[in-house]
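Journal club prep, shared notes

We agreed each person brings one worked example of a sequence with its structure written out as tokens. Mine is 3-demethylubiquinone-9 3-methyltransferase. I'm keeping it raw so we can talk through how to read the token line rather than staring at a rendered picture. Sequence first:
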Amino acid sequence: MASRLNPYLSFRDDARQAMEFYKEVFGGTLRLNTFGEFGSPEGADADKVMHAQLEAENGFTLMASDTPAGMEHNPGTNISVSLSGDDADDLRGYWDKLSEGGTVTVPFEKQMWGDEFGACVDRFGIPWMVNVVHG
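Then the structure, token by token:
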């Protein structure tokens, strides 16, 4: 898998509906996982989308999630740029450069789903997510 760059959209409670709509628009394969599937089966957010990924046949990739209760959600500022792939050296290098002088919001480390992941806001105020796929 090569590294890729794609939009990552944040929603309050309707990520599933939005991503199903985008699937109708672009076609392709949609994968959805809820917070309940990743360790919070009893929580208020259990049925909300923790991660959705639409991969269209034309190469478009769109990712999204619902914003958990208690986290700020401001329509208009609800997008991040996502870098993901299995080239760990390249992706770690991008992380180092993007987070330098910015604000780390999720430390870059192994996560419960098995990948290395981190989130930051760069020095220009742009939110980034970097995910190194393992497995």
